[in-house]
Amino acid sequence: MSPGDYRLVRAVGRLPARVHTKLLIAFVGTAVLLVAVGALGLRVLAQSDDRVSDLGPLQQRAAAYGKLQSDIATVRLLLPENLPQDDDFFTVWPGAVPIPLKGDARVAVDQAVANQVKRIAPATSSDRLGFVPPSADENVLGEIREESLRLSSLMDDLIRDPNDFRRAQAMALAADLNQLASELTNTTTAKASGLIAENARAYASSRSLYVGVAVGAIGLALLLGFVLSWSVVGPIQRIDPRLAAIAGGDFSGHVDVENRDELGALAANVNRTNDELRRLYTELEAASRHKSEFLASMSHELRTPLNAIIGFSQVLREGMFGPVNEKQSEYLDDIVSSGNHLLSLINDVLDLSKVEAGQVELEVGPFSLRQALERGVVMVREQATEEGVQVGLTAEPEVDVVDGDERRIKQVIFNLLSNAVKFTPAGGEVDVSAIRVNGEVRVSVADTGPGIAPEDHERVFEEFQQTDAGLEQREGTGLGLALSKRLVELHGGRIWLESELGKGSTFVFTLPAERVPS
Amino acid sequence: MTGERILVVEDNEKNMKLFRDVLGATGYRTLEATNGGEAVAMATEHTPDLVLMDIQMPDIDGVEALRRLRADARTASLRVLAVTAQAMQGDREHFLAEGFDGYLSKPVNVLELLSTVRQYVDGGAG
How does strand B80-84 pair with strand B50-53? Predict the structure, then answer.
């Protein structure tokens, strides 16, 4: 099954629209699909870009909060330097009394801590951070600011009074601060991570969507192209062999194309052409058969009465039923010769009709042209001798065997020879010659008769167009040369006349001679 | 000229007269039939020495009549000449192929007719 036979393809073919429109729809459809795929790609890119721009500030915040936490962590690390206990001591024993440390070292450490704590509050301002924190962050940052201020004043007290036992309270505040900063950092970092993960997921799903849509669009475009091209190619493939068959003379079939477009119309026209040609061909055949039958009937019907005319005349002339006088005998001769003239007229008319109807099929085969010429000369010699005309033949040895219909060529030769003898006055000559020129055989029949004026050269080959000399002769059918011309041309040869008034005539005909002389 | 019997089959009255008179004047006895059916009946009854058979006739034509003659043992070996106005190219070959012993086209040359008849009757040619 050809793709042109698929249901979908045929269904598209049946759509009542012009091929041009269908093609336009297919191209526009494909273009729309391409634009859609492109637009989707741009959207996916834009979303991705948005997510990346969300991520930037988040990471900036995370970094800033990390810095804050690191500062607070330093405070928290420095504070316990003045205690013999480690951090866990106050966690396990909250409210325990710390052991005061010795003089200057303690003050220096506390001073460093105080300085560090003082830097915390300003660091939470949006100016220092470089961005405006979201309100949730701002709340935490506010707490950090307040607590750092409280720690700051506490530290000032501690520096002034070494025995102040609120050092544990400072430790707790620092731990709180650390806790807050740590939360802030962790939350923000988590948000950034979440956003990254979300980005990754969104990217993956966008990619799937994009790939899906692209593959779908390509598939759809291919399908459009396939269906449309086959809805065009399919009918052409079906029409082509039908046309070839019609060209070959087969009018038996119809081409089946359901398309309701130009191709459907084309197929319908092919079918109409087929039917019309079949009708004409049938008519022509009938006419040709009718003509053949008519010719055969005519021949038969004309010959039947001629049989009686010629027969009875002959019987009388032969004296079968008693003698006839000289005048009667002469008339009987005239009747017989006129009857025979009529007979040759019938034969020539039939021959000519057949040639013109294309019903003459040459029986082409190799034959001896030399022998045919010799036979022709023999056939006219008696008449020539009676009229005192010499007939000569010169044929080159290499024109012996030629291809052609021997009977028809003999007919032509005899016609030319008998014409020549007929028109040559007593004492004249008729020369027949055959030579091979440029791959063709050329036969000439030259006489020393009255000649034919150049303006009549073409006319003598037309039916019933005899020259004045011919009319005077009152012999011949007026069809001999017309028939000869057709027969020579059927062989693929030419026939012409070379003559001037008073200088005799030379009729020449050629035959293509493909055969190598043997 | 010993009175051989010749069956002339011919539907045209004038042509029949011509053949009858020419053959009669030459010394043959003629039998006459104007169509194929008659021809077969007469040939079977009289077994003539030669049959001159027209081809195109009403009823049974010459070719069919010949076929019937050839099919019957009594007449199978009769010498039969086609004498016909069907004289287009290829007709002679066609009728000889049908089984006629000879062929003469109309219009016949009376002298040729007589010499042919003599040839077939005397020499048993064909």
Answer: parallel
**Quick one: closest CA in A to B104, which residue?**
A307
Which tokens sit at A85?
């206990």
Cα B87 to Cα A138, A211, A282, A476, B126, distances in angstroms? 131, 89, 28, 20, 21
Predicted confidence at residue A30, as pLDDT, reads: 87
Tell if the CB–CB gap between B108 and A307 is shorter than 8 Å: yes
Whether residues A303 and B107 touch (CB distance < 8 A) is answered with: yes
Q: What ipTM was predicted for this assembly? A: 0.92
Instruction: Give the pLDDT confidence of B46-103 residue by residue, as tens digits.
Output: 999 999 999 999 889 999 999 999 999 999 999 999 999 988 878 899 999 999 999 9
Contact check, Cβ <8 Å, B86/A296? yes
- Rounded to whole angstroms, how far apart are CA atoms A101 and A96? 15
Interface residues on B facing A, Cβ-Cβ cutoff 8 A: 12, 14-15, 17-18, 21-22, 25, 56, 85-88, 105-111
Please tell me whether residue A437 adopts helix, strand or coil conformation: strand
How many other CB atoms are there within 10 angstroms of residue A429's CB atom? 16
Q: Are strands A505-512 and A495-499 parallel, antiparallel or unpaired?
A: antiparallel
DSSP β-bridge partners for residue A403: A366
Considering only CB atoms, B110 lies closest to which of A299, A300, A311, namely: A311
CB-CB contact of B79 with B49 (8 Å): yes
**What does DSSP assign to residue B72?**
S
Query: Could you tell me the pTM of the whole model?
Result: 0.57
For residue B106, give the nearest of A295, A304, A321 by CB distance. A304
Both tokens assigned to A505 = 């005539």
Q: Which of A359, A361, A313, A356 is nearest to A333 (CA)?
A: A313
What does the DSSP 8-state code read for residue A119? T
What CA–CA distance (Å, rounded) separates A13 from A312? 79
Rounded Cα gap, residues A272 and A276, in angstroms: 6
> Is residue A315 a contact partner of residue A359, using CB atoms and an 8 Å limit?
no
Alpha-carbon distance of A255 to A245, in angstroms, equals 11
pLDDT in tens, A112-156: 888 888 888 888 888 888 888 888 888 989 999 998 898 888 888
In 3D, which of A53, A70, A191, A67 has the Cα closest to residue A128? A67
Q: How far is CA B7 from CA A113, A157, A307, in A?
A: 163, 173, 18
Q: Tell me, letter by letter, the H, E, C secondary structure of A160-212.
A: HCCCCCCHHHHHHHHHHHHHHHHHHHHHHHHHHHHHHHHHHHHHHHHHHHHHH
Give the residue from B106, B109, B115, B117 with the most A CB atoms within 10 Å of its CB, the best one to mutate.
Answer: B106
